């Protein structure tokens, strides 16, 4: 048990240390990039090594004290000395030894270790990461209809993973969902956490030292019931909790607030409107709009394809959507990732005012790549062969790595709207290259077309965004389904319309 108690001692110091360092913590946006989360693994090992070093140092102290107790033949029964030598030993010990013990016990071997913890604090996840990670978990639940109790056990889409959650993690999810006004879901997570907490009474002291005592669960329960309008039930449970933890000041505040809400008959809070995921079925199962389409070897789009045709799968003729199989080699895929992964930054989206802003419905980091590298030049030539379009004046490549529950909400790739100038150059087509396999989730879905494509490394998806008239085709409304397992890497290039005048003419009527 010495190591367990010493661990708890350092965890208390860790809480204090990180609280002092909060002002220096920056938003690293770990939750929106699985690649960047790899950095957290080394950070955690660094901290665990500090804990291990601390237990070793403290164990040395324990061993020294135990050696002294053994030397003294310490027993709980008090036996008075009966000779002059024993009297002398007693006086010497109380005059000299115990002053040295005071000095020895006052030495804190964790001071240097705490300094190391404080130094790394700015690289730790922020509160925003907690919020985004929780929303990702909730989004996965909604889209894939995953029961809370199964997720707690680490069962995802009927597959058991080594990903079970503990009571503290359930409480954190419940608390964040409560802040987001997802009260029903918050109650499910809270109930699962309480059940596990009560089944692990031997860990109660550890959970308490880590800032999640059992009283927190009851306090959050009262808040959720209050928000949902179940105030009578909340008051009953709160009074019981106040008897169990009479020293809890927050309970008294909650009691006053609850009494006020009952007296004024405050209206219950409404839950956040849940987005309609009309594509949920196609996120789970690969959807095809018709069985009449087929696969073929494309040898006609460019002259080069007569020598090296591409494997092409027709997914939709109107709008035109095709999937190319095995078009990017493993070596090129890895090279592209290497070019992108060192400078990934949070992706932004173009809003109606043509301004780029952070989008909560796009959990991904990205990097723009130009055609200066041999691999991007090779892929550009491939796109021209695939599409017969001229890439002059088109956007650069954008490589994206998605985060926890990696997701991109429904959107269009064309940019023109009522406020756009008449000479605005829009995106006539999109080419998207899949740079990784995704074991669970991560499909590209076109809800209007009832079409979905699951990522396969080396394949490429291409579609037209505009009608022949140049107007945006709203049937190309699409989304990236949440990623459950794996890391979703894609590379996109949007092709501008101005150079395609004679390759796909704009027609006012078709």
From TrEMBL:
Query: What does the record give as EC number?
Result: 1.14.11.2
Any one GO MF term held by the record is: procollagen-proline 4-dioxygenase activity
This protein's UniProt keywords:
Dioxygenase, Endoplasmic reticulum, Glycoprotein, Iron, Metal-binding, Oxidoreductase, Signal, Vitamin C
Q: Which SMART domains match?
A: P4Hc
Q: Where does the record say this protein resides?
A: Endoplasmic reticulum lumen
Single GO cellular component term? endoplasmic reticulum lumen
* Top-rank taxon, per record: Eukaryota
Q: What does this protein do?
A: Catalyzes the post-translational formation of 4-hydroxyproline in -Xaa-Pro-Gly- sequences in collagens and other proteins.
Instruction: Provide the protein name.
Output: procollagen-proline 4-dioxygenase
Q: Tell me the organism.
A: Drosophila gunungcola
């Amino acid at each position: 048990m010495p190591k367990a108690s010493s661990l708890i001692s350092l965890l208390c110091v860790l809480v204090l240390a990180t609280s002092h360092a909060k002002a220096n913590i920056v938003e690293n946006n770990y939750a929106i990039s699985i690649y960047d989360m790899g950095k957290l693994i080394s950070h955690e090992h660094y901290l665990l090594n500090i804990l291990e070093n601390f237990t070793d140092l403290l164990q040395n102290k324990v061993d020294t004290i135990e050696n002294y107790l053994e030397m003294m033949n310490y027993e709980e029964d008090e036996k008075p000395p009966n000779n002059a030598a024993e009297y002398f030993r007693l006086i010497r010990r109380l005059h000299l030894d115990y002053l040295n013990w005071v000095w020895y016990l006052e030495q804190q071997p964790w001071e240097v270790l705490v300094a190391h913890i404080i130094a790394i604090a700015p690289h730790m996840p922020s509160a925003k990461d907690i919020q985004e990670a929780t929303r990702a978990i909730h989004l996965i639940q909604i889209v894939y209809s995953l029961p809370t109790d199964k997720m707690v056990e680490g069962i995802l889409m009927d597959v058991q993973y080594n990903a079970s959650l503990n009571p503290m993690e359930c409480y954190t999810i419940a608390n964040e969902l409560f802040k987001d006004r997802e009260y029903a879901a918050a109650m499910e997570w809270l109930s699962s956490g309480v059940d596990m907490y009560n089944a692990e009474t031997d860990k109660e002291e550890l959970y308490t030292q880590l800032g999640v005592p059992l009283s927190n669960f009851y306090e959050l329960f009262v808040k959720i019931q209050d928000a949902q309008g179940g105030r009578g039930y909340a008051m009953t449970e709160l009074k019981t909790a106040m008897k169990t933890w009479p020293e809890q000041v927050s309970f008294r505040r909650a009691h006053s607030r609850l009494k006020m809400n009952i007296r004024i008959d405050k209206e219950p809070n409404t839950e956040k409107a849940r987005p309609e995921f009309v594509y949920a079925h196609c996120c789970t199962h690969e959807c095809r709009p018709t069985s009449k389409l087929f696969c073929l070897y494309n040898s006609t789009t460019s002259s080069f394809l007569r020598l090296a045709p591409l494997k092409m799968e027709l997914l939709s003729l109107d709008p035109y959507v095709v999937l190319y199989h095995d078009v990017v080699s493993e070596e090129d895929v890895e090279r592209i990732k290497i070019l992108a992964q060192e400078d990934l930054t949070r992706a932004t989206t173009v809003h109606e005012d043509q301004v780029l802003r952070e989008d909560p419905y796009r959990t991904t980091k990205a990097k723009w790549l130009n055609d200066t590298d041999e691999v991007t030049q090779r892929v550009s030539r491939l796109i021209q062969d695939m599409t017969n379009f001229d890439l002059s004046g088109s956007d650069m490549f954008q490589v994206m790595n998605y985060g926890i529950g990696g997701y991109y909400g429904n959107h269009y790739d064309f940019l023109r709207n009522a406020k756009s100038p008449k000479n605005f150059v829009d995106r006539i087509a999109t080419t998207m290259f899949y740079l990784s396999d995704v074991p669970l989730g991560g499909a590209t879905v076109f809800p209007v077309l009832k079409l979905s494509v699951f990522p396969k490394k080396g394949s490429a998806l291409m579609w037209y965004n505009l009608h022949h008239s140049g107007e945006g085709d709203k049937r190309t409304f699409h989304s990236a389904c949440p990623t459950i397992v794996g890391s979703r890497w894609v590379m996109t290039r949007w092709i501008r319309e101005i150079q395609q005048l004679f390759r796909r003419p704009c027609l006012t009527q078709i």
